[in-house]
Amino acid sequence: MAGNAKPHERGEWGSRFGFVLAAAGSAIGLGNIWRFPYVTGQNGGAAFLILYLLCVLLLGVPVMVAELTIGRYSRRNPVGAFATIRPGSYWTLVGYLGVLTGVCILSYYTVMAGYSIGYIVKTLINNQTSFESFTANTWLSIPLFLAFMVLTVLVVQGGIKDGIERWAKILMPILLLLLVVLIIRSITLPGAGKGLTFYFKPDFSKVTGKTILAALGQAFFSLSLGMGAMITYGSYLSKRDNIVTSGCYVAFFDTLIAVMAGLLIFPALFAMGLDPSEGPGLVFKVLPKIFASIPGGNVVGAGFFLLLSIAALTSTISLLEVATAFLVDEKHWLRRRAVWIVALVGLCLGLPSVLSQGAVSWLSNLPLPGGDFLGFMDWLFANIMLAVGAFLISVFFAWIWRLNAAAAEILEGYPGFQRFSVVFDILLKFFCPAVILVLLFFLFKGVL
Predict the structure, then answer these.
(1) pTM score above 0.70
(2) Which CATH number fits domain 16-445: 1.20.1730, 1.20.120, 1.10.20, 2.40.10?
């Protein structure tokens, strides 16, 4: 095996439980609580849910295990990982792509995350300002954007064990508890039973090719794959840890949160007689109306947006960590300096996204996919670049590094891996790359 240079001194997870919570937190975010419910609503409910679960198992888990394995073997960030396994090759560019993608997603994701903080107060005081007016107000949106970035920095600069892991152990249980409380309130609303039927009783006659593609896309994008976040988090894993079960736990918790978000939202929607296929405006436009019309709705609504903020924070932490680990490992920067420099770059890149939500007309109406600057950044990086990154990672793992070399790393913490290594190899060599190429084709086709 290539590349045995001793890596720069770095942190390690204090426990596998801490890693699972942190990595699950990386995957859990606006995609689970904002995107999953409206995509499910647009694609028929229960049948989509079943397809989504299959896609997580067949697509998400193999790519996640591949990323974690690359990270733990190399003990490096995405750039250093590829340089360690194939030194002097062009594969290092895949690592740079991951770092760039992480910073760019951080830049606009923090904008949306800031809105969720603002909506905690907005819902609590029953402010009726429309979402469009709220986002167009730069005196609100810019400070919220800055505040969320600073909050992310304060966690990440604490390091792996005392920063990311410590806060994951606090934030993730709070997130689960809040979800359970809100679900109980939602399913006890009069008329909520229709929402449960929609969500859990499948009608496969409504399944089309579009439904299958939507399930594949949601499973892929919800797990934070393709930008090296799991390579970075895997690099802090102990050699004693079981990579396969760790990856499965992360996928399980990520999927659980998405399913629970649907269990919260659909009963409430049907209780109020609203359309479940509302679309992207579901969380910020429709749900506040639901909260305003039920007893104690202000408190329930504030709780929901607190939940959304926590989910977003666990994601922005991992987005910031990818580039931070690169600067710490490869450039030997102090962590504190690296964190603040990456955050400053993210703030500069994110400012056009803030202004594109109604404050500056030309940024808000671009002749590009997404329609505005933030939408275009989301289309380019969360859709295209993540897919390209995951495709290249799966090809690298299965065809360049090859499973017989990688298996030694997996077997170190999981001797039983040998029993199904052939299935794993087939999924990563053929199924995952083919599916990702199909997704990319339809993503481009949708905007041509």
Answers:
(1) yes
(2) 1.20.1730
